[in-house]
Amino acid sequence: MTAKTLIAGASLYLFPAILTAQGLSTADLLKPLANDWPTYSGDYSGKRYSHLTEVNQSNVKNLTLAWTSRMTAGAGNAAGGGGGGRGGGGGAPTIIGGEGAADASAGAGNANIRASILEVNGVLYLDTPDNAWAVDARDGRALWHYFWKTKGGTHIGNRGLGMWGNWLYMETPDDYLVCLDARTGKERWHVEIANFSQQYFSTMAPIVVGNHILVGTGDDLDEPGYLQSLDPETGALQWKWYSVPMKAGDAGLETWSGLDAASHGGGNVWIPGSYDPETHLYITGTGNPSPAYTGQSRGEGVNLFTCAMVAVNVDTGKMAWYYQTSPHDTHDWDSAQTPVMVDADFNGKPRKLLVTASRNGYFFTLDRVTGEHLVTSKFSDTVNWAKGLNANGQPVRDPAKDYDIGGALVSPNNGGATNWPPPSFSPDTGLFYVPTSDNYSMYYLTETDPRGAMGLGGKEEVGVATLGSYLTAIDYKTGKIAWQHKYPTGGGAGNGILTTAGKLLFAGDQGGNLVAYDPANGKILWHSRIGQVSNAPETYMLDGHQYILVAAEGSLFAFNLY
Amino acid sequence: MAQQPPNQTPPANADAGRGRGGGRPEAYPQHPPGDPAAIDRGKATYGVQCSFCHGSDARGGEGGPNLIRAEIVLRDRSGETIAPVVQNGRPDRGMPKFDLSAAQISDIAAFIHSFRVAGYDISRDRPPSIVVGNATAGEAYFKTTCAACHSVTGDLKGLAGKITDPRSLQQAWLMPGGGGRGGRGGAGGALAVPPATVTVTLPSGQKIEGRMERIDDFLVTLIDADGLSRTIRRDGDTPKVEIHDPLDPHKNLLRTYTDKDIHNLTAYLVTLK
Question: Per-residue DSSP letters for A119-173?
Fold first, then answer.
């Protein structure tokens, strides 16, 4: 680990620390997850493993509610009438921005909080589509609320804010990056990050690395995916990396039927990645190729670099390596799962690893410096779309399971054996934790035009059954399931996981409970019924007390010990 | 192969794309409806000048790309971004230039913009039926796999008369009582499926039985014989909870079917009028 310490020091040198009063410095962002939660996964590793131990196995049974706070979306609390409006999560004024003509009351009501919530210096920062809040981390009081008047776009969710100094960054469904002053909620600037008329929509939590803001977008037409780096001061473009070939000579073009197919090939980058300060590699997952189901127009190739883990150098925007987890995907199984960086032994030697459980039902361990494949395993035993693995450990698709006019029975369903909600890794147990599900759908081909359809068209999926939903612990060395907690109902996989050095694992369950488990064996240690948990639990330390924070049914809940 | 006429006015409920926000207007607005006369003129000009390469429905033809998803078309309002490409050509990609006026190109744009883009892409060449299997093979499969519990002269008599849509029938026999997560609307509701029941054995040995209402790791709720709701606390394996799901055999079979089995069985069951 000495090498890591040395190089981490070098990284500080390379990225001049931006230190502002009360603000978040780039050096803060390089630290392992501790008292604050300053970026999407808490720290860059994606482990969602906290070193905090005040709450631990011996006392978690005493964990109790510190506060709860309801977030109300929409512009109902606009500070128009002298700031006298109430609501919006505690009477804070609502600041309105945006380029849309939409009625400001659109989307008002209970906030659907799917985001990871930042905690910096005693303030929480969270967002939902078109809405951002600052909330006092000690009592849940809203400090300000920002509302963005939208032009439209797919309002499926928002995965969190990014922070740099005193500035917050929010993606909007109509494809802007908005920079807010974290102290006041006032808008500093906004820039367009994708073309709305091409039906892009933006949900990703921006990731700040040094003087780069990394942003990605989504699209359900056939438009190309890309990752961009913007200047945190101005929003100006630094570089743009496309996940599909865009011009003659681009790498991977030979895996498509041609340039038109490639440059309309999807592969959108809509989930935050992880970052290795030693190699300067930002590693993230790319989305499905497009058209998603009727893929014949894409040719017979593997459609690079869709459905892949990709390592992009943050300084240059150039890809260092890739590993495709679903070659030539035909089920919209995005490989959009935040990968987890693990420094641990592999075959008796310390190694820099990357682990991910993919929506398609397969788990992978890779070398994160080179992209070398190390382990593949299937974590849902109903998964039936692949004939086996190739020499590089990649699942080989069975074309008979793409779809059928008479219906093809396929596991998993479109929602996947897992999905984007964050997994976790505990160095204490050496186990990777992920919400999983065994499920089936029938896929009917509904478009016999030999050119196929666009976007997600051309098929109809009809759900059949979920046989089981689980909290699953996987050994990164073998890919084998170490233990599984089967939920009594099959309501689908959960919304994300936290592990801590207190030898605890927190996750929401199917019955509306926040539950603490023993990460060694899945034994239940504590629970509280708060309603359907909608995001991954988090933790932070304030005034000498450790808080466990989670969102459920439009409210925040913070637990601690007294 | 011959193409069906393009479907220019898909049903309003066709927008089944992901994640529409409640109460919000359509995520990606369509072009405002064009002047029908301009669309007709544009269709005629397009048919002569463009359709060979780009397809009669603008989704691509002999060598020319799909225009509906093309950035230049998506950005265009009334021909202003299309015109430079048409008038100058794309020599690097083999597209010649066309001697068309701005007004003619505006008409062509009106025609192209009349195709629906927003939301879920509507299937245009739908297969006539999902019944693709062999009924005789399906009958044989029924006898070996299903006949232990079901009878075509008993509980399944007239099944295809009750569920007339073959796809609904197929989904219904695969999983009576409705679909799982991730798809829309199983049609199994047309079949009467007995509810799951639960037996809770308290440490005293007393058994409480009823219709399964809900369960998690901490509580189980049942509806007892009097129709009353009872919730019982769970602490690990105490009390003992046994769930009896009448659909378990159907769930277990999912691991064993081939798609051919499914298609054959459906081909047989649709004959049970």
Answer: EETTEEEEEETTEEEEEETTT--EEEEEEEE----------B-EEEBTEEEEE-T
